[in-house]
Every structure is written in C-alpha cells, then in structure tokens.
Design a protein that fits this description.
The complex is a heterodimer. Chain A is mainly alpha-helical. Chain A has 11 helices and 2 strands. Chain A has one domain. Chain A is about 75% helix and about 5% strand. In chain A, a hairpin with a 2-residue loop joins strand 1 and strand 2. The model of chain A has no long low-confidence stretch (mean pLDDT about 90). By secondary structure, chain B is of the alpha/beta class. Chain B folds into 2 domains: about 220 residues, 3-Layer(aba) Sandwich (Rossmann fold), CATH 3.40.50; about 70 residues, Alpha-Beta Plaits, CATH 3.30.70.920. Chain B is about 40% helix and about 30% strand. Chain B starts with a strand and ends with a helix. Classes of the chains: A mainly alpha, B alpha/beta. Chains A and B meet through helix 1 and helix 5 of A and helix 2 and helix 3 of B.
Chain lengths: ~280, ~325
C-alpha cells in the first residue's frame, strides 16, 4: 500500500496553518454568515412562521436553527469548490512539474488534496456549530450526550463525503484551466445554481417544478438533509413546513453523495491522466 | 566500452502543426557530462521533457537508464533527477521541508530520507538556511537547493535544464563545482544550456540543436577543430567589399558578415595570415577600424553551423517558444 498521498496532504495542511490570515478568515467567514444573514433573516421568517398554524405536539424550530444546517452545507460547498485552486497555482508556478516528474501516481495528488480539503471543511463545521450554539442555534435540542456525539459524527461524515466530491470536481476543473480568472468564472457559475436550487436557505417545496427536480438531485440538498436529520431531528416544523426524514431518506442521501464523490474522483483521475505540465 | 544510458532514436514532436523536434537521434554514455545546446525555442526543452516523461512520446524511441519512456515511465522517473529551467520551489516551505516533501513523494524510507536531507544540505552548503522559507533565498541558493533536491534520490542521471540561467558569474562557478563533484561520484549529467563557454569547459560530448534538428555533434575540441585553426574578426570601412576580397583567399575556410564586421575562419596560423590580409585590404583602399585574432569558441561553432549568433537566435525564436508553451 502506498501512502504518498499523505505527503500531499501534509504539505497542504502545512500551508493552511502557515497562512494565519487564510486560516482565520476561513473560520470567521462562515460564522459571520450565520451571525449577519441569520440574524437578519430570522426576524423576518420567524414573523411569517409564527402566523402559520401548527398542529399541537409539533416540534417547531426557529429560522436560525433551520439556517444553521444550511450554513454548514454552504461553507462546505464553497470551501471545497475552491479547494482545488491551489493546484492551478502549483501548475502555473511550475511546482507541479516536480510532482508530475516523480514516481508518485497522480491519483495521490487528487486524494491528498481531497483529504486536506475535507480536513478544512470539518474544522469549519466544528467552528460553525460551536458558534451557532452560542448565538442561539438550537441544535441537538433534547439529545443525551451520547446522542449528541453520534449526531456530530453523522454530520461530519456527511460533510466529509460531500466535500470530497466537490474537491475532486474542483481539482479536475483547476487542472483543465489555464488562468485563475477563468477558473474563478467557472466556479462561480457552478456555485450559483447549486447554491440557490437547494434547501439550504429556504424550503424547496414551493419551488417551480423544474427547479424542484434539479434540487432533488443537487448534492447540496442531500447534504442539508443529512445535517438537519442529525442536528435537528427526524420530524420537525420550520417556516411553516413539515420536515420528516426517515432513516431510509438519510441513507439515500448518503448514498447519493457517495456516488457523486466516486464519479467526481473518476472525472479528476481522467483529467489528471491526460494533463501535460511542462 | 561504457553503456549508453540514454538512447534516443528518430524522436519527433509536434505542437499542432508546428514540428518542434525533427528526427533527433543521440546517445549519452554512462558517467559523462553531456550537453544539449541550442538557442531558446530550438527544441531543447521539448526533448528534455520527453526524456523525463513529462511530455508523451509521439514518434521515435527513447530509452533512459535502460527503460523505455513510453512503456515504463515510472521506472524512468525513479532513475532520474531533474533540475527544471524555471524555479519549481514552493516559496512557503522551508529548505528542510522542500527536501522532506521530495523525499516522501519518491517513497524514501524515513531514516534514509532524513540522513540524505542532511547530506544534501551540507553538499550545497545551505546549513544556515535549513528553516528559512525558500521565498527568502537568493537566486543562487534556490538553484543549489533545486540541485540538492534533484540529487537527493541518488539518480543515475541528473537532468539540468539551463541550471545557471540568470545567475551571476561567481554563483555559476560555484554551481559547476557542485555539479562536477556529483559527476565524479558517478552520476551522468544531461545538461541543456545556451551558455557556450560553460558547455565547452565541462562537457564530454555536445550536440547542437537548432530548429528541432541536431546540426553538429562531437566533443568540444573536435567541434572547434572542425572550424579551422583560427578566427579573425575584422572591422573595415567597407565590410561588403572586404568580404568579397577575403573570400577568394585559399586559406580562408569561411567568411560571415554580421553587424559588427567580418568573422573569418582560416585554415592556417592566424598570426602569419592576418598581416597579409590587412595588407591586401589596405592596397584596395579600405581602412581597418578594428581587428581581433583568436581560437574558435563554441559560439563560433554555433554561428558556423546556423549562420546566427546564439544570443540573437534566442530572440528570433521566442514566438515559436511561446507557441510551444501554449499547446
């Protein structure tokens, strides 16, 4: 078994912790999202929601709690989609030549970058959850300690698989682009539909038909489902909508993310195999 | 007889419609310093990139360290070390981390790797800079670090692509001391450069490439001897007229005219021949503004074979290079 991908991982993490500004901003940014957007929107949404009649016994969660899961997912999306960019810089600065001329198989680069990106995502998620709990996101409400622990593991597993998929995609795109500007454009273009055609910020039940179909296949929706299931519960009301997640739903979402990650890995491997760096 | 450690046969390489390498054949013997010379854009980098398996082999056959680059690129990669033309250091890693990273992607076991790192740092005298990030190193130190990195895996062949480009003379001299030391320890050196004087001093064998073709080969002495015994440089009041007159002389092997004057290759002793030529030109009413007599250098070899000075040729070929880079 070859573990050279750990070397790629080591180098990327070394750089992550070395650039304090990058480290701090990547941790503060999602917290700001939650604090600013969450605070602003929740007063609006909560006003609507409180006007809607709910059945007795229903568990109703605040918009901030609903959004908390969405912010976790969005952060994972952004961090991962931009996670492969370092490869473009490595390519343009010539650093990749050293690596491509070495006996290390190129798949190790993909895996190493994938793992370091996942580590960054997980760190961010832990920070968001901690910060969220401080400002009033009611995650794990009524959970026993062991249950909370398992829920956190479940969330991290979902975020990890999801991030891997988008890191592989990001690596594939970075390797096929020539300029950072072009890459920025492609990734932004990709981000918007994934971002808006998902249930991260609002319920998708009211979407027009086609958008609803897209969002059902959207990996971000599957991630949000998983996170809400573990963080909030399997049966709750938010913004007037009833959310029910069966174990089967969650397994299906996990499977969808795993398939997505596998496909993206194959795509990245295909691109890397053909890439010429001179 | 030493075995050929590199064997290139009928190598061709295209970038779209542009033929960058045209039917190139050469071989390198184990243990020698081999120089691949030519102006920028002549095809040197393309050849080196095929040899180190960064570019796919399109046509021809290339064997490096006994392995076919197309069939066994991984074996080739294990057997070689490369110092690239442009800087390939991660500016945010320290000297030690740079070598550690390299050793790990070449799967060197930890203990051996740590020992080799120390050995290499000592070899290129970067002990003081061990924990300094490479962005803070001088150009010469960066080069030394890259050479240390290339050598760290104990390659049988070290590829040096323009190792001294952009460095000052003192740094160049020191770098050559390291490279010679390495070569004496048994590593074959494959060098590309457009510094003719360097190649002249160190090479056992030289191939000169231009427009994708090898146009001259031999050891430096032979290449220079082929040209003739002496070179005369003349500046006159009318170079064109002088050229016509000199050309008819029996001892003159070749005359070239460039912006500075005439470059005359002669087959006999220049110290005897030069006064005769000067006398003749004066008789024809030409005045002589400047004169120089010297042994042919590799620069002269290059001009003789290509009709261009290697430094001028560099500029002229930039467009072809830019083209090659894009594809």
């Amino acid at each position: 078994m070859a573990f050279e991908f750990l070397t790629v991982y080591w180098r990327d993490m070394l750089r992550f912790f070395r650039f304090r500004a990058l480290l701090v901003s990547s941790l503060v940014q999602p917290a700001l999202w939650l604090a600013l957007y969450g605070a602003a929107m929740s007063s609006n949404f909560n006003r609507f929601a409180s006007a809607l009649p709910l059945p007795p016994e229903a568990v109703s969660v605040s918009y901030l709690t609903f959004l908390g899961a969405g912010v976790i997912a969005l952060t994972a999306l952004f961090t991962s989609l931009f996670g492969g960019i370092s490869l473009l810089f490595d390519k343009n600065w010539g650093l990749l030549r050293e690596v491509f001329a070495s006996p290390m198989p190129r798949t190790h680069i993909i895996i190493g970058i994938g793992l370091s990106g996942v580590t960054k995502s997980l760190l961010q998620v832990l920070v968001i959850m901690g910060f969220g709990l401080l400002i009033g996101v009611r995650f794990f409400s009524g959970y026993a300690p062991l249950q909370t622990g398992l829920a956190v593991v479940g969330i991290l597993a979902f975020v990890g698989i999801f991030s891997l998929g988008f890191l592989f995609l990001s690596s594939a795109i970075s390797m096929s682009m020539d300029t950072p500007e072009g890459l920025q454009g492609v990734i932004t273009l990709l981000t918007l539909p994934i971002f808006f055609a998902s249930n991260a910020l609002y319920p998708i039940d009211a979407f027009p038909g086609p958008v609803k179909i897209i969002s059902a296949y959207n990996p971000l929706t599957h991630l949000v489902n998983g996170v809400r299931y573990f963080a909030i519960g399997s049966d709750f009301y938010a913004i007037g909508y009833h959310y029910v997640y069966t174990t089967g739903d969650v397994m299906r979402s996990m499977l969808a993310l795993a398939i997505f990650a596998a496909l993206m890995f194959l795509a990245a491997r295909w691109v890397f195999k053909r890439a010429v760096v001179t | 007889m030493a075995e050929n450690i590199i064997q290139v046969e009928h190598l061709e390489h295209w970038y779209g419609d542009f033929k960058a390498v045209d039917d190139v054949c050469f071989s390198v013997k184990e243990g020698e310093i081999y120089s691949f010379l030519g102006p920028n854009g002549a095809g040197k980098s393309t050849v080196i990139n095929v040899l180190i398996s960064l570019l796919p082999l399109q046509r021809g056959s290339v064997k490096v360290a006994g392995y076919d680059v197309a069939a066994q690129p991984e074996e080739v990669r294990k057997a070689i070390g490369v110092v690239f033309q442009d800087e390939t250091l991660d500016r945010d890693l320290t000297v030690w981390e740079t070598l550690e990273f390299h050793g790990r992607i070449y799967s060197l076991p930890r203990e051996e790797r740590r020992r080799l790192i120390e050995e290499m740092i000592a070899l290129v005298e970067l002990e003081e800079k061990r924990d300094v990030r490479t962005r803070h190193l001088s150009g010469g130190m960066k080069r030394r670090l890259e050479i240390a990195r290339g050598l760290m895996t104990r390659p049988r062949i070290l590829f040096l692509d323009e190792p001294t480009i952009g460095l000052d003379t003192q740094t160049r001299i020191r770098l050559w001391e390291y490279i010679k030391k390495v070569n004496q320890a048994g590593t074959t050196i494959f060098l590309t450069t457009h510094y003719m004087d360097e190649a002249d001093q160190v090479s056992n064998w030289i191939d000169i490439i231009d427009h994708g073709k090898i146009i001259a080969s031999g050891n430096p002495l032979k290449l220079k001897d082929e040209l003739g015994r002496d070179m005369i440089y003349l500046e006159t009041s009318d170079d064109e007229a002088a050229l016509q007159m000199v050309r008819s002389l029996e001892v003159v092997k070749d005359v070239r005219r460039d912006s500075k004057g005439l470059r005359i290759t002669i087959t006999t002793d220049g110290t005897r021949c030069l006064p005769v030529i000067m006398e003749m030109l004066k008789d024809q009413g030409l005045s002589i503004a400047g004169v120089n007599l010297k042994k042919p250098t590799l620069d002269d070899v290059f001009v003789y074979h290509t009709g261009r000075n290697i430094r001028n040729a560099a500029g002229e070929k930039l467009s072809a290079r830019a083209f090659a880079r894009r594809h």
